[in-house]
Design a protein that fits this description.
The chain is α/β, with parallel strands linked by helices. The chain is built from 19 helices and 16 strands. The longest helix has 29 residues. The protein starts with 8 loop residues before the first strand and ends in a 16-residue tail after the last helix.
């Protein structure tokens, strides 16, 4: 940071300072060390922007203040706009060395304003009170009379029928009392944060619960670099605050955790990391395998759940299946038959997904999914809209077998899972197959990319085709990977399998 320049503390930096002063210091003094915005984070920002645009429609006579990244210029433009006594979007004001940009300011009475902060969440969060309190403090200091403070968040009970109805899409909650409770401490907090920023050295903050509360910290790779690569104490199963107690005692490796202080699952995990070998409960695995009957259907969905519903008869954040991969093994030793579907996006994909699955999954045999409650929920909620499929959905629900269960319950644990029971960790740990090399390698990215190339009119056709090809490859590996994992469970004493041999179950 240029020491000749006095920093201005924005709302986002204030919130970061509340979470961790080390993060705040880094933001102003070592920006080159902070990771940039990745595609998934950008997708979250894009979603927030879309929500904000829809909220503004509730004030059709509102004025958007063109963004200027110089706080002083933005403040000057905003102060001029106040004279118009119309709703203002993104009006920014400076008070001392605090700077805040309002989502919406609404004129009330003769000389007052209501502050409305728009959030893409479906409920109030503690962090939002501090957010609004900082803004109200800054605006009042800049000369505005703030009457009320509101949070306007998504109403997840809203069902789209035709055009979006912004007045039903949002809920507006008065949080004036909550912001007033927090305002007396803001001035001192700002002074303290500015002192942190001006310090020559970063503050000595230990790794702790604040690293992920209220959000994942951008400095994790830096602050946690002293830990072993994979086998650290933070992968200990459901250990909560106990992990920090271990760290205080100087225990950083999971293999060094005293077994006599652990429950049964944690002890099995630690012993596995000590030996480097898989923990296997053979009898329980056999009991799990005996539930599976042929023909076997390996099903994986990819879904979108935007805050602003894109199809009729859907709610905010409701998971809408736009893609599935279905591998069918008719009987033992027979290669899997692959089925796939990727919706074009121009119409609600649920009827076609239901129609195809009803045809392709028959009426008997086990349906295997990883974390199967998700697939069950997607089918059920889709059938609730397209009710002709309700009887089929109910019968189908009873056929599901969750491949997550043996890993979630520690019937099988390999140290290469690094404490995770997700398919992304289990598959390479026990089969040797991997998601590396795929351009789309997780569900969040899949949803974001599908949304981008489907609902963004500016995407060119070459980009769209490329993303759709990548989506097919990713979803295919999810269903094919389950085949390989099941094969590995059927020979659990073996080392990681050659993935080329995992197509028959």
């Amino acid at each position: 940071m240029d020491k000749k320049t006095s920093p201005v503390l924005s709302k986002s930096k204030y919130l970061e300072g509340l979470q961790c002063p080390k993060l705040l210091w880094y933001e102003y003094n070592s920006k080159k060390d902070i990771p940039g915005i990745d595609a998934k984070t950008q997708a979250v920002f894009d979603e927030g922007h879309r929500v904000g645009v829809w909220a503004q429609k509730l004030w059709p006579d509102g004025i958007r203040i063109e963004r200027d990244f110089d706080p002083a210029r933005q403040s000057k433009k905003s102060l001029e706009a106040l004279k118009l006594r119309r709703p203002l979007f993104e009006a920014g004001f400076v008070f001392g060395r605090a700077y805040a940009l309002a989502d919406i300011l609404v004129p009330v009475d003769d000389d007052a304003w209501d502050l409305v902060e728009v959030k893409s969440s479906t409920q109030l969060k503690e962090e939002q009170f501090y957010d609004a309190a900082f803004q109200s403090y800054t605006y009042a200091g800049a000369g505005l009379k703030i009457r009320k403070c509101y949070i306007m968040h998504i109403n997840n009970e809203y069902v789209r029928r035709g055009e979006i109805e912004p007045d039903k899409l949002f809920r507006k909650v008065d949080i004036t009392a909550e912001t007033e409770q927090r305002q007396p401490s803001i001035g001192k907090e700002i002074e303290s944060m500015l002192a942190v920023i001006a310090a020559k050295e970063m503050p000595p903050v230990k790794v702790g619960p604040q690293c992920s509360n209220p959000r994942e910290c951008k400095l994790e790779d830096i602050c946690w670099s002293f830990l072993p690569d994979k086998d650290h104490v933070f992968i200990l199963y459901r250990a909560g605050k106990f992990r920090y107690e271990l760290l205080e005692r100087g225990i950083v490796s999971i293999a060094d955790v005293p077994v006599d202080e652990l429950n049964e699952k944690q002890a099995a995990q630690v012993k596995s990391h000590r030996t480097g070998e898989a923990h296997i409960d053979q009898a329980a695995i056999e009991e799990f395998l005996n539930k599976i009957v042929y023909p076997i259907y390996f099903l994986d969905f990819e879904t979108i759940g935007p805050a602003i519903p894109v199809y009729d008869y859907s709610r905010p954040y409701q998971e809408i299946p736009f893609q599935y991969s279905l591998d069918v093994v008719e009987k033992e030793g027979v290669p899997a038959k692959h089925n796939e579907y990727l919706a074009p996006g121009d119409v609600d994909p649920r009827p076609e997904v239901l129609r195809r699955l009803k045809e392709q999954m028959g009426e008997t045999g086990s349906i295997i999914a990883y974390s199967a409650q998700f697939e069950i929920k997607v089918i059920g909620s889709s059938a609730e809209v397209y009710r002709d499929y309700l009887p089929w959905a109910e019968k189908t629900r009873k056929r599901f077998v969750d491949l997550l269960d043996p890993f979630k319950d520690f019937l099988f644990y390999h140290p290469d899972q690094a404490g995770s029971a997700s398919l992304k960790r289990v598959l390479p740990a026990i089969t040797g197959s991997t998601y590396k090399g795929l351009e789309i390698a997780d569900g969040q990215t899949a949803a974001a990319e599908y949304y981008r190339v489907t609902f963004n009119q500016d995407v060119d056709e070459k980009d769209r085709r490329h993303v759709r090809e990548s989506l097919l490859k990713y979803c295919d590996l999810d269903s094919r990977g389950m085949i390989e994992v099941l094969a590995a469970l059927r020979q659990p004493a073996a080392k990681p399998l050659d993935s080329a041999g995992g197509n028959n179950v």
